[in-house]
User: Fold this.
Amino acid sequence: MSHRYLILGLLSERPMTGYDVKKRVKESLSTVMNASYGTLYPTLHRLLEEGAVEVRQVPQKGRPAKKVYNITRMGRQELSEWLRQPPAADQIRREFLLKLYLAKDLPKQELQAMVINRRDETAAQLRLLDVERDDAHNPHQQWVMDYALLICRAEMDWLKQLEAQLGMG
Amino acid sequence: MSHRYLILGLLSERPMTGYDVKKRVKESLSTVMNASYGTLYPTLHRLLEEGAVEVRQVPQKGRPAKKVYNITRMGRQELSEWLRQPPAADQIRREFLLKLYLAKDLPKQELQAMVINRRDETAAQLRLLDVERDDAHNPHQQWVMDYALLICRAEMDWLKQLEAQLGMG
DNA sequence: ATGGGCATGTAAATCGTTACATGATTCT
DNA sequence: AGAATCATGTAACGATTTACATGCCCAT
Assistant:
């Protein structure tokens, strides 16, 4: 359900295409949530039907026109009401952690491999975040970036501890 | 899909009822994933049909018999194969963070209220984790507990910074 | 010419929650 | 007496992913 408000919220900053929304979420909001076209486009269509957004066809040289969506007054109203509701509890599914928890019969070697892969992925994400940190212009974006960085660093520390306990070094 | 392996994994430690699985997830695995009866029971039925688990009716005084599930050799095999696969990416939906990100037109007072609520919730969770830490007996449980604690503490620090920036003292 | 980015969509299938239904027991 | 815990389940609905389908532009 919150994809609806994600879209509304991003459109309240500036008009965008569905493609733009996707890119934005992937680049700056991957710590917060994720969104696929299969959800995004139908949700945009629905918002349009209901009058929460409006659309403008923008011609392009060589390419077919793109659909730039903009939030309406009604949309802003709905967004604002949602923002005042208490947020739903975070939903998480950490499969790596689940496997670690359940992996009591897995050979130590494979456990170590899992941890190494995770460390590499976390390191990569950390590098990404360091680059993106500069893109954050308003304090809200900054806060979310800070959060993402903190979580990533905490996980890195934890992974190092884990490696020590697994006799890797 | 990983509910299937969650169940298999917990049953590989000891036989349990569906109710036990639910409790266990809620108490020790809430940082990892969550599970509702509406998912758990049908998944158990399916695992039974497919021969990955077996069931035994255990009579009780005064209450109707309970169904204690146990993993089969086939189930162990399937679990082990899954554990060796690379884990799927973490899935997250942090609605609080999403609201914070989108709340640029929200009055400062309401923002502050959001942050205070979050801080209270995080503090409560931290207390819970401190209590539960003693229950962890094998290193795998310990690792997951450590992870949960680290993340919680990191969020607490971040919240304090946030409060400072919002002029709350 | 090959791959990546721009751009929009749909359909099927699955995944998962919520709410409902039931009922005994034990703790406060 | 009333609330919490033990215990099992289903049905309806809603949410989401995956895979497919299409096609042009630009850089290497």
Q: What stands out?
A: Chain A touches chain B through 58 residues (CB under 8 Å).
